[in-house]
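Consider this:
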Amino acid sequence: MFSTASELLVVFTYAPAGLGHLRVVNTLSDVLADKDSAVLLGSNDKGIESIHKFISLNFIARNLMEWFQRGEQQKIFTRLYRNYLKSGSKNLYQQVLEVFEQRVEVPKKIVFVCTHFGLAHQLANIKPKLEKTIGVKIYLVVQVTDDSPLYIWYVPGSDLTFVPSEKTKQELTEYGVKEKLPKIDFEVVPYPINPFLCEDLSSEQYKLRVKQVERLSKENIQVSVPISGAAVSMDFYRHLINRLNAKSQTFTFHVVSRLVTFTKYFINRAKEWPNVKVYTSSYDREVVDLYDELYKREIISLEITKPSEQSFKALLSTQQVGGSILLFSKPVGRQEYDNLDFMRRHNLIFSQEEQKYLWDKAQKSESISDLSIIKLFENKGKIRGLELPLGSIKAANFIWWCINHGIFEKMMEQGLYENKDFETGSNGVAIFWEKVKNLIKEE
């Protein structure tokens, strides 16, 4: 537990741009010993959510944004976007002042923890003025929420920026040097995962998880299906669930989704499907809690998800609570491609050639020998996820083929092995707070 002294206040900030930022906030805040010494500050900028939703759902806008996230055009876009964010920092300044006006005791030190670059740039812009007005020392800490070196994550004025890999650190550092930006401190720390998900299953619970995906097993297969904040790929999930239901009644799907206008139709339909349980709320924080409660209540063996921040559950062992096998839908946006690249570099998923080999086998309904499976997994760290082929029919056939040919069963066994690489640890939360504590002590 990270202990916050009475003279220290931790302010967690998040933006309404998907649920990933809020999940990280919950993960980092849950370990605080003194909950009264922490404040959650959400952005009032509804434009961020609208832009995020539009880009996620609109094919042309999505491709245009991906183009802006690479090459020289990314540098131009970042300069413009950074200036835009700074121009909108006045409202945030007033919002922060209101938070402190409500407190009986004003702390001596404040740590802002930002899980969205928008608020990070705005806070960096108003930080000197805030320190003067409130009369306190302010620290700005940024947690990058994907292993993606998008230049917008370079926040001049940040006291400490956490990234999931040395690769991202190096690329962002080189960008700062080329652009002649003020130097900032990057720290490579394993991606922060909810400590609850890192807890070990009992031996009986682990046996049940394995039993669910064994060949010829009649055990119910518990499948988590979290819907992203932008509600991307709902048609894909709808068809995939119904096709798997048609193959076997042993599946139980747990759909976790935010209830908003553009998800309401999907949620109402999902409630009528056989073998589907739906968990929903209109409030982002409650949706995040519902997801955690699902893993507390059920032994989940498979999770069908986007390769976003949920990807980093691949750092867990299959013997840990959150260590379900991850089945990734088509990536959307550069950051999701980068997350898959992170997992490939660490042998948490197969290479593209190996993945295609499995897809082809499943598509042709060909058998695969136990010896071939052993060779496929040979010299790997711990394979924790698989990419799904494009299209719900192929994806459903692939999942069913993997069950019937022992692929998931082998992954359960393989996923027990510890990966010695520092970037793939499951203790990122503890390291995060230790480094924040050291930052404060240095002053």
